Model the fold of this input.
Amino acid sequence: MLDRKFILENIEAVKLNCKNRNVVADVDRFVELDQARREKQQELEALNRESNAVAKQIGKCATPEEREAKKEEGRAIREKLVALEKEVKDLEAQEDLVQRTIPNMAHPDSPIGNDDGSNTVVEYGPTPLPKWSEGFKPLDHVELAEKYDLIDFEGGARVAGAGFYFLKNEAVMLELALEQFAVNKLVKKGFTPMITPDVARNDVLQGTGYIPRGAETQIYSIDKTDLSLIATAEITLGGLLANETIDSEKLPLKLCGVSHCFRTEAGAAGRASRGLYRVHQFSKVEMFVFCLPEQSESFHAELLGIEREIFDDLKIPYQVVDTATGDLGGPAYRKFDIEAWMPGRNAYGEVTSTSNCTDYQARRLNARYKVKGEKGSHFVHTLNGTAVAISRALLSVLEMGQQEDGTIVMPDALLPYLSFDRIGPKN
RNA sequence: GGAGAGGUGGCAGAGUGGUCGAAUGCGCGGGUUUGCUAAACCCGUGAGCUCGUAAGGGUUCCGCAGGUUCAAAUCCUGUCCUCUCCGCCA
Done:
């Protein structure tokens, strides 16, 4: 959420931001509701004051008659109080609903545009695009997986439906190697490694900006509980500080979470979805940072730098994209994606995403920090970034590693975690 | 899954219907004393919202949500969490 006062003091800027982000939010309605709510709140507080005063007098009444009279007075106030409380609550709920639809402000440098067509490429990775000889047709990862018995899509579909799969043989080792590679790197960079729950309470989902139920939801919910399968460890890691006030000295908190991720991909039918590219379940190593407001921009650069380093190490060509305002989603102030070159699609495809959510996510989560010796508390800033989304990284490694002799060479960076350096025909 | 116990301020820990935003201790901040340090002593010390230029005021908050009552940390219901014991189990 955006700060209530900020909205009221920057109505025009907030409206323009909604327009740039292609989000429909009724800012005027919010202002009206806030005004009305505050007036009612004042009334309520006045009445409360009265009620408290009467209640206090009763304790000191000398005679039973006096007491009864005061009680009657109290009862009358209470009746009014109940009605007024309901009014205030209703207004609050309405106001909150509108406030939640207002997206975060965008970074002044974020490209302005309605959709991903306005995303701008800001740089390319150092690994060159593959140069195969004339006439060599690279296989895509589905064909490679078939050839070397690495992934069982049919089995996955039989057991759990389309979009699920079994990894087999070297693909299993590759998943584990990618995880270890990423986690080891992050630990060296001061991140605390965590394996998180794969489910979370729905209020944690909402706090991090995910909508657990509804027609458009990306989220699988678990029947008869208020739990959902997580779409990313961002949810569980973000929830870690929900309703907490942390000492500023303990910040920044750099966390790296390993989890499974589940996505319904509702409405994604027909979109590029062959093979591992768009699946209902995958594993992911995610970075998450809680920090002071003045630190968030530099941490955002750090997260992007780590993502680049990982794909540099894996020898995968990529481009870095500065996400346009219309494609940012609700919580991000700024977002960079890495799009890896995928020979099978003959195109770049998103493999990581890192967002600076400033205090937007923290406000919903109610994650605060306190500076020793200072009055009050403030909202932390939160950032998240993909270290490795295994499914897509695996796809990239397989497709990029293929040689003209048909074998698939593993990147050096993974060799410490693998018992083979090449995938080829089985004996 | 069964049986109990409990969730109070940064921490520990009192408080079982009104005088409780909450004793006391520790911690923390400031001060006095002191050659320095320590000790001792004194004063102060939660957060949210809101009114006010400010000083300051009001209101809400004792896990969370409801209920009873003129009045709830305190009584009732539900719920979440923690701990102990038993059972089951990778």
Observations:
- The radius of gyration of chain A is 27 Å.
